[in-house]
Every structure is written in structure tokens, then in C-alpha cells.
Design goal:
This protein has a single domain (3-434), classed as Amino acid/polyamine transporter I (Up-down Bundle). It is 75% helix and 1% strand. It has 20 helices and 2 strands. Strands 1-2 form a two-stranded antiparallel sheet.
Length: 436
């Protein structure tokens, strides 16, 4: 039995308890907040019209403004997972997996709202003004052991995610004869330089790149989809038709049950949105906003951007039919789609997008890893830890594709389940905080 077989079996074993915790917690928090993901929408419009930045001024250089916090958090969620995740979900879980990937966002959004609300309320400020925030801080109020468990595992989670992003980027660039070792080396060095600059540089970089890469990818994806309207409607119908049924084998697709479609779709959603993992709340806790609910509302609705890109990516795979011809675990389907269906400029637009997606996601995840590190060692030896992250990014770019995805799915579940349980305890213990 190979390491890949062991990882695959472990994921199968964890499937049912993971589904119960993920879906159950989303439903409980939705009821406890009285459907805040619906009620808070008018408040979101008000925040966007007035501009949260106008009302909350940054008070020291160790913090960032609320919108920079949103973009820094989105830098970790809007990444290669949005582009590659849906194609992997479809080829391993069937078209129905895309339905569950999108549907879980409704419950995942309120989970993210709760995470950010507690992260901002329970963050810690050091004497020099540096903020240490996120799950490691609010989980301490439940159990110090639980907080340490989370911090240790997220060191592996964030570092592994960065390696996985580098792996995907290197695989796609290798299609254009760029050696994977070159791609991994450049990305590792770039990330190290940015991390040395701190959260201020990360926030500024993300606030500029995230909107650009979102619009750029969105535009070209829509141009491909709208070029064949009948195929687009057929793909959408297939997603809903497959959501609750068994899928027969076709091409490289081995068939999927309802359980596997749900599991794969929800896990890919968590990878894309980080809802339930608590990791995106780290960047949000760095804000100098004086109203935690405002930051939580912004975080909650940022999921719309994540799922929009993911849904379009999934539809691209279905409308072109490439998911039926894939004979192995592949993270380069989107490259083939843009190359074949948007020749010339389209291929280069994808290269620009994936470079921006991967770079900002790696930077964001690496910064989050440093926060987990800081929860144990403060800032002692932090630059050496940045160097270690750079080495992991480089090594990840050279790993086998299916192995790294299976390994990260296991770590993701081991992080999410105890974190969500702790979050539910806080939600019942401090239910007044949830009332907005």
C-alpha cells in the first residue's frame, strides 16, 4: 500500500463525521444568528456606499484598514483553488459536486461571519502595537489545549497550502516548457521578500491585485461561456440534475455517489472560502475597525466573490466536456480550456491570472502560518520561519499532484472539526456577541 492509498483511505474514513460537523454547524449558526446571511445584506450595501475605510481610520502601522483586511483575507481564498478546485471536484465527485460546492457557501458564510466576529472581539495586542488574532486567540477561551492543537496543525495547513499553490502553478507553467524548479524557486523568493515587509505590505499588495485578477479572470471566463449558450444551459442543468443522484462512469470519471459528491464539493468549498477553518479571520483581526460586526459582515459576503469564480470555473469544465476525457488526476484542465477555447490572448490572460492568484494566496497563507508560529514564539526567530516557508513552497512545486491534494484534505479536516466544535461552544457561551 502506497502513501497515496493510505491518504485516500483516511479521507474516506473521515467523510461522514466531517459532513455531519460541517453541515450541522452551518445550520446551527444560521438558526442562532437568525439567518444573518440574509438579514445583513442591506447593511453590506450601506457599508460599501459609505466606505468603512472612511469611518475607521488606521491608528498604527501594525494594523490595516477594514477593506485591506478583506482583500488580505481574500488573497488567501481567491487563488488557485477557485480555478483548479472545481475541476478536481467534478472529475472526482461528478457534476453534482459543483452543486454542493456552491450550496455550502450559504451555510459557510455564516460560519465565516461567526469566526471573524470572535476574532476581532478576542484579539490580543502586544506592547509594540502588534496584533495577534484569529482562532488561536478565541479558542483559548474554550481550551488552551484546543488552541494549541489548532496552532500546531495550521502550521502544516498553511505551509502545505502554499506548497500546493506552488505545485499547481509549476505544473501549468511546465506546459509551456518552464521547468518546475524555476517556477518554485522564483515564487519562494518572492514570497520571502514580501513576508519580510509585514502585514502592511501584504495588505497594500492584496488591495491592488485582488480586484484586478478577479475582473480579469471573470471577463475571459464569461467570454468563453457565453460563446455557446446552449452548452452553458445544459451544463447548469447537469449540475442540478446530478446533485442528488448516482453518476455513471464516463471517460476518466469513475462514478460518484451522493455522499462522495457532497464530501468532495464541501471540502473544495472549505479550501476555497476557508469557512469553518477560521484561517481567514486572522487577516480580519488585524484591522483597526472599531465595530466587529462591520468587519464580520464584509467577511461574510466576500464568499460571494469566491464562489462566483469557482462556479464559473466549474461551468467551463462542464461546457467544454473536458472532464469526460481526463484519465488521471489533473490540475491543468483550466490551462487546456483557455488554450483551446480562447486561443492567443486567452492563454496569456490565464497565465497572468494564475500567477496573481497563486502569488497572493501563497503570501496570505504564509502570513497566516507566521501567525500560528507567533502564537507559540511571538516574533522570536520569525525570519528563519519565513525562510523555512520558502523552502516548503519550493519543495511543494516538485511534489506529485494527487498526493499533495489528498494530504491537504486530511489536514484540513483535522483542523476544521475541532475548530468548529470550539466555535459552537463560543457561540452558545457568548450568544450576545452574535446579535446584530
Amino acid at each position: 500500500m502506497t502513501l497515496l492509498d493510505v491518504c485516500h483511505w483516511t479521507n474516506q474514513f473521515l467523510a461522514i463525521p466531517a459532513l455531519i460537523v460541517f453541515l450541522g454547524s452551518g445550520i446551527i449558526l444560521t438558526l442562532k444568528t437568525r439567518f444573518v446571511q440574509i438579514r445583513a445584506f442591506p447593511h453590506l450595501i450601506t457599508l460599501l456606499k459609505k466606505g468603512v475605510k472612511h469611518h475607521h481610520q488606521v491608528k498604527n502601522e501594525k494594523t490595516i484598514n477594514p477593506f485591506q483586511a478583506v482583500f488580505a483575507a481574500m488573497a488567501t481564498t481567491i487563488g488557485m483553488g477557485n480555478i483548479v478546485g472545481p475541476s478536481i471536484a467534478i472529475t472526482t465527485g461528478g457534476p453534482g459536486a459543483l452543486f454542493w460546492l456552491i450550496a455550502y457557501s450559504f451555510f459557510g458564510s455564516v460560519t465565516k461571519f461567526t469566526e471573524v466576529l470572535f476574532a476581532v472581539n478576542m484579539r490580543t495586542r502586544l506592547q509594540d502595537g502588534t496584533i495577534i488574532g484569529g482562532p488561536t486567540q478565541y479558542l483559548k477561551t474554550v481550551s488552551v489545549g484546543l488552541a494549541h492543537w489548532y496552532a500546531v496543525l495550521t502550521l502544516f495547513l498553511f505551509a502545505g497550502w502554499s506548497g500546493m499553490q506552488a505545485n499547481t502553478l509549476a505544473c501549468i507553467f511546465s506546459m509551456e516548457s518552464v521547468p518546475r524548479v524555476v517556477t518554485g524557486g522564483v515564487l519562494a523568493l518572492f514570497t520571502f521578500i514580501i513576508l519580510i515587509g509585514g502585514i502592511k505590505r501584504i495588505g497594500l499588495l492584496a488591495s491592488k491585485l485582488v480586484p484586478l485578477m478577479f475582473v480579469l479572470y471573470l471577463g475571459f471566463a464569461l467570454s468563453i461561456l457565453l460563446s455557446d449558450i446552449p452548452a452553458l444551459f445544459s451544463a447548469i442543468a447537469l449540475v442540478f440534475r446530478s446533485a442528488f443522484t448516482y453518476q455513471a462512469a464516463a471517460g476518466g470519471f469513475l462514478g460518484a455517489t451522493l455522499l462522495s459528491a457532497m464530501r468532495i464539493g464541501i471540502q473544495r468549498n472549505m479550501h476555497i472560502t476557508e469557512a469553518g477553518l477560521g484561517s481567514s479571520s486572522i487577516a480580519h483581526s488585524m484591522t483597526d475597525a472599531d465595530k466587529a460586526p462591520d468587519q464580520a459582515v464584509l467577511a461574510m459576503f466576500s464568499i460571494i466573490c469566491d464562489t462566483t469564480i469557482a462556479f464559473l470555473s466549474g461551468l467551463l469544465v462542464l461546457t467544454t466536456g473536458l472532464w469526460l476525457t481526463t484519465t488521471s488526476f489533473s490540475n491543468t484542465l483550466m490551462y487546456e480550456i483557455f488554450k483551446n477555447y480562447s486561443p492567443g490572448l486567452g492563454k496569456w490572460v490565464l497565465f497572468i491570472c494564475i500567477t496573481l492568484f497563486a502569488s497572493t494566496t501563497v503570501i496570505g497563507n504564509s502570513f497566516n502560518a507566521s501567525q500560528s508560529y507567533a502564537s507559540f514564539f511571538k516574533e522570536k526567530g520569525l525570519k528563519w520561519f519565513y525562510a523555512l516557508l520558502a523552502l516548503i513552497i519550493f519543495g511543494g512545486s516538485l511534489m506529485r499532484v494527487d498526493l499533495i491534494w489528498e494530504m491537504m484534505d486530511i489536514i484540513q479536516v483535522l483542523v476544521a472539526i475541532p475548530h468548529i466544535i470550539g466555535l459552537l461552544i463560543l457561540a452558545f457561551r457568548y450568544d450576545k456577541i452574535l446579535k446584530i
